[in-house]
Amino acid sequence: MTSMPLKMREHSRFGVRTAWAGLLALASMLGGLQTATAGESFFDDFAHFDKDRWYISDGWSNGAHQNCLWSDAAVAHEEGRMSLYFYYDITPEHDYRCGEIQTRPRFGHGTFEARIRTNEGSGLNAAFFTYIGPVHGEPHDEIDFEVLTANTQEVTVNTYVDGEQFHGAVRPMPQPASEQFHTYSFIWEADRMRWFIDGKLIHSVEDSNLPERPQKIYLSIWGTETLNDWMGPFEHPQAPKRMDIDWVSYTAPGEACQFAGSVLCELAEN
Predict the structure, then answer these.
(1) Annotation marks residue 142 as catalytic
(2) Residues 189, 24: Cα–Cα separation, whole Å
(3) Among 7, 74, 3, 26, CA closest to 222
(4) How many CB atoms are located within 10 Å of the residue 6 CB?
(5) How far is CA 174 from the centre of its chain?
(6) CATH architecture of the domain covering 37-269
(7) Residue-wise DSSP of 139-161
(8) Which of 207, 214, 234, 237 is nearest to 223 (CA)?
(9) What global pTM score does this model have?
(10) Which of 93, 116, 119, 122 minimizes the number of CB atoms within 10 Å of its CB?
C-alpha cells in the first residue's frame, strides 16, 4: 500500500458522542488552532494530491468509541483517486489504523459532492461530511452522509447544530454502496437542506434551525467495538477494508454546475 505522509495534526469528529475534553487538550498540546480561510468553488479529481487544499489526519483518534488510530499510512493516492483504509496494525493504544482526509479551508452554504465506493464490513463507518467544532474554537455544526458498512444498501444523513442532532434519516441506496461508485451530494442553504444520491433527492428539510458556520470537508473510514447498536457488531477484517474517492467538489451559491455529473446540472435541466 502506498501512502503520502502529511502529519498535520488538527482534529475531526463524526456524528457520535465524542470526548471533547481530550480533543481540546490535545489541540492545546499541539500548539493552537488553524486560522480559517474562505473556501471557494473547486472540483478535485485527484490527478494529484493538493496539499494546499487537503491534509491527512494522523496520530490520534476521536475518543474511546473509536478502535483505530488515524494514520497517514492508511491513506493512499493514485492518480485520479484517493483510497482510505481500515486495517489491523497494533499501535500502543489501538489494534487498527484508519484513514481520513480533511480540507484546510472552511466552506459555507453551497453544494457539496463526492463520488465514492466502499467495502462492506460490520462495525465500520464510511463517511463524507462537513464539520466545525470546539477543537476549531467554534460551536459544533455538522452535515453528514454516513454508510454504515454492515449494510451498504442504506445511507444515513443528519445535521448537528450547536452540538445537537437534527434531521436524521436512513434512506435506501439505489444499488449497494459497495458494488459501485455513487455520487453523494448535499445542498446547504440558510433555511433548507437537501441530500441526493446519483442526482436523485433522498431527503429534504426546510427549517430555520440548520448549521450556520462555515465547515471543513471530511472523508473517512473508521471502526468501533462499542457502538454496536448503531454500526453493528465489530468483525475483525481478514484483509484491509477501503473507501475509494473518485472526486470531491464544492460549488458556491449562485454558481453554475462545474462538471458533468454534478447534481446542479441535473437540477438545471429539470
Answers:
(1) yes
(2) 30
(3) 74
(4) 15
(5) 20
(6) Sandwich (2.60)
(7) --EEEEEEEETT-TTEEEEEEEE
(8) 234
(9) 0.87
(10) 93
- Per-residue pLDDT in tens (0 to 9) along the chain, 270 residues: 333 323 222 333 333 333 433 343 333 333 233 334 458 999 999 999 999 999 999 999 999 999 999 999 999 999 999 999 999 999 999 999 999 999 999 999 999 999 999 999 999 999 999 999 999 999 999 999 999 999 999 999 999 999 999 999 999 999 999 999 999 999 999 999 999 999 999 999 999 999 999 999 999 999 999 999 999 999 999 999 999 999 999 999 999 999 999 999 999 988
Among residues 40, 142, 212, 255, the one annotated as catalytic is 142
How much of the chain is helix, strand and coil, in % rounded to 5? 10, 45, 45
**How many CB atoms are closer than 10 A to CB 225?**
15
Q: CA of 61: how far to CAs of 58, 94, 134, 171, in Å?
A: 9, 9, 16, 28
Structure-derived torsion over alpha carbons of residues 145, 150, 153, 156, reported in degrees to the nearest 10: -20
Contacts (Cβ under 8 Å, ≥6 apart) of 239? 87
